[in-house]
Specification:
- By secondary structure, this protein is of the alpha+beta class.
- 28% of the residues lie in helices and 16% in strands.
- The longest helix is centred in the N-terminal third of the chain and has 21 residues.
- The termini are far apart.
- 19% of the residues are buried.
Length: 388
């Protein structure tokens, strides 16, 4: 009934518009668009909205996430937002380049966790300490347990959020199985500054090489890389290499082969926060890094131009990424000294500092001056709303 009604209204109204607009020399055209039939079944079409209580309950976020992943893998007649964005770009699924890993049964982990919860609920001493707010939680033990269970998955999710895999490996990813403990020593006043996964470390605190520790088997070889994908001054696709140590025996970083010596962070002024990323590679055998070695000292930004993906492709048959940690860094006064004293170049500045407004010396008897003449020489932090 809707289409005939529209046609009838158009027949009655069209002569009126034509008679009025024809005098002005305006021509009009109208078109009716009829909604077509869907090409297939619509999403959630089989759900009975009148009886929502009868629907299956997931009871946990893990079950819901698993159902969503299974549904996303099924073929559908409609296109998603990602399909439209990646159309014609040769999009392929991300490749896992990390160490092989098989996670145990999820049900066993849940049972063990529930068992621990029941024991804690039955403990009257723990309940009393929690009520009196005297319960002490061993944070180191909790961190060790987190690293063994879900820590690697959380770190990978954080790295995806910060775009580390996308910018360094062009979408390829890995699961960081080996936890890395990295600490900068910034003097007795501040103490040790740790590096986690996205915390802020100033260039002053990172002026010297950090202390790196990780669990390693006896006789194993490792490679440690520190790179900055946000600081290149000429090429957005390139990075600056800050530190590279290869053929590390066990976890003795100081005994490894220093391919490129350490240089402090130097995020240019006005460019915001930069990501400084540590990647730990596990080697299958000893590698000859002659092609990647830099002279010591290396104070040339051109020689420190680097790409993690190219480095990994050269040695992908002999090394595998196993650990990840990174921090964020913002400009401070020590960056100026790094550019002048270490890199021997002028400091690039991408931020304009407006000079203060110049006022002539204040007159003791300001005759012929405007009413608010004294406000020019008043401290801007003092309130002026009660003066006048």
């Amino acid at each position: 009934m809707a289409v005939p009604l529209v046609r009838g209204v158009a027949k009655k109204v069209a002569p009126i518009f034509l008679s009025q607009w024809g005098l002005l020399g305006i021509s009009t055209s109208a078109a009716c668009c009829v909604k077509g039939v869907p090409l297939g079944k619509m999403p959630n079409e089989d759900i009975d909205t009148s009886n929502l209580d009868s629907l299956e309950k997931y009871r946990s976020y893990h079950r819901y996430l698993k159902a969503v992943e299974e549904e996303s893998e099924r073929p559908h007649w409609w296109k998603t937002y990602r399909d439209y964005i990646t159309r014609g770009k040769g999009h392929t699924d991300a490749v896992d380049i990390g160490l092989p890993f098989s996670r145990g049964a999820r049900g066993r982990e849940v049972k063990e966790r529930r068992k621990v919860l029941k024991e804690n609920h039955r403990s009257s001493e723990m309940e009393r300490a929690a009520r009196r707010r005297t319960l002490h939680v061993p944070l180191p033990d909790m961190k060790a347990e987190w690293e063994k269970t879900n820590g690697r998955y959380h770190i990978r999710r954080i790295a995806e959020h910060y775009g580390i895999y996308k910018d360094l490996l062009q979408g390829a990813h890995f699961l960081p199985h080996v936890p890395i403990e990295i600490e900068y020593s910034s003097g007795e006043a501040v103490g040790r500054v740790p590096v986690h996964h996205g915390n802020v470390v100033t260039p002053t605190e990172a002026c010297s090489p950090p202390r790196v520790n990780f669990e390693a088997e006896e006789g194993s070889l490792w490679t440690l890389l520190l790179t900055n994908p946000d600081g290149h001054l000429q090429d957005d696709e390139s990075e600056y290499l800050h530190w590279l140590v290869g053929n590390i025996p066990g976890n003795a970083v100081q005994s490894g082969e220093e391919i490129c010596h350490y240089i402090p962070p130097f995020p240019a002024k006005g460019t915001g926060y930069h990501r400084f990323i540590f990647i730990l590679f596990k080697q299958d055998n000893r590698i000859d890094f002659k092609e990647d070695s830099r002279p010591s000292p290396c104070h040339s930004l051109q020689m420190r131009t680097f790409q993690t993906l190219d480095f990994y492709r050269r040695h992908q048959d002999a090394m595998t990424p196993a650990g990840l940690a990174f921090f964020q860094c913002l400009w401070d006064d020590s960056v100026t000294n790094t550019f002048h004293q270490i890199l021997h170049m002028k400091e690039p500045v991408f931020e304009y500092h407006r000079p203060p407004v110049y006022h002539p010396p204040q007159k003791k008897f300001p005759q012929g001056q405007p009413l608010r003449y004294l406000d020019r020489y008043r401290n801007s932090s003092e309130p002026t709303h009660t003066i006048y």
